[in-house]
Amino acid sequence: MSASSSSASPSSRSSKLPPFDPADPLGVDDLLSAEDLAVRGTVRAWAADRVLPYVAEWYEKGELPGIRELARELGEIGALGMSLDGYGCAGASAVQYGLACLELEAADSGIRSLVSVQGSLAMYAIHRFGSEEQKQTWLPRMAAGEVIGCFGLTEPDHGSDPGGMRTYAKRDGGDWVLTGRKMWITNGSVAGVAVVWARTDDGIRGFVVPTDRPGFSAPEIKHKWSLRASVTSELVLDGVRLPADAVLPEVTGLKGPLSCLSHARYGIVWGSMGAARSSFEAAVEYAKTREQFGRPIGGFQLTQAKLADMAVELHKGILLAHHLGRRMDAGRLRPEQVSFGKLNNVREAIDICRTARTILGANGISLEYPVMRHATNLESVLTYEGTVEMHQLVLGKALTGLDAFR
Predict the structure, then answer these.
(1) Is 57 among the residues known to form the active site?
(2) pLDDT tens-digit readout, 299-310
(3) Where in this chain does the record put each Acyl-CoA dehydrogenase/oxidase N-terminal domain (predicted)?
(4) Of 102, 238, 295, 314, which is most buried with the most CB atoms under 10 A?
């Protein structure tokens, strides 16, 4: 029997194909379980109800009102520290955490930053490197959103080179005394606990710092043109005295904070695609209704070329994020691969937003649409958790074996 006679005809095969879905052109949803889809649906519905109706006003005013209430609600849906196990955390998969990040950033990068700093930085540091007493004290309340956390690594003069930090912790009898400053700290002025990294005579160590300690202050940073619907602060540590057991016992050196940053960067790989998706969807809807020269601009070849290119990069980025998530779930995700994802997806997300702005024309700069808000937010996302240049050098070293950092 010939191959042609034993197989269905092309027309019969094509008739069994699912319809093309413009929202999921690569069929990536086929890779998701029912539980994955349920997690995504829960976070998407929460963001649609609690963020999207208000975020343009928050952004315009440069504030995030009701952040403590929002944190408690995020705790109720299991979004805080959701990929961690035990201590009230959801124990979700890496893919599920990524899907949550995408939906949160589709609403606004500031909301995703709130969740990422809480779960992937502050809670992750305590969960991975903390004592059992530290975990029991802080993680259940942080998972519930009852306590907001922040993560103090970046300093005014030391961003990409955290090894040069000046914040110092010295022993004084049985106590530690912390002195220094941290800069660009998300959640800082509303945090109940800060994970602060400092130099000691024994190397860089992490400290769990209740923010009500004398000498601790967190003045909020104003006049931002990016991440305006987010709380950003400086941390000032003026002789903050802590007991001996405030130190994270399970790590010494930069591998501690850098492993936390790698976990947070993974969330950005997904989250940036949320901002891109929101802007792309706005451009598609606008192109179908905005008329020039007697017909919708979506019917012109140049506009369709833009939309096609945007869709290709958006869904390639989502597929990359999904691949990295499966590797993380399998315990096989390397930091260099996270750098690959962060470098590619944030750059492409910004380009998608800028292209969407051109399709919307002058309306693209209006807060009636999400495009410019996402574009300006992504300028911060491009820089924090490692700049473009740092991730290029991480990959360059991995590709050549040669260290170009110094």
Answers:
(1) no
(2) 999 999 999 999
(3) 34-146
(4) 102
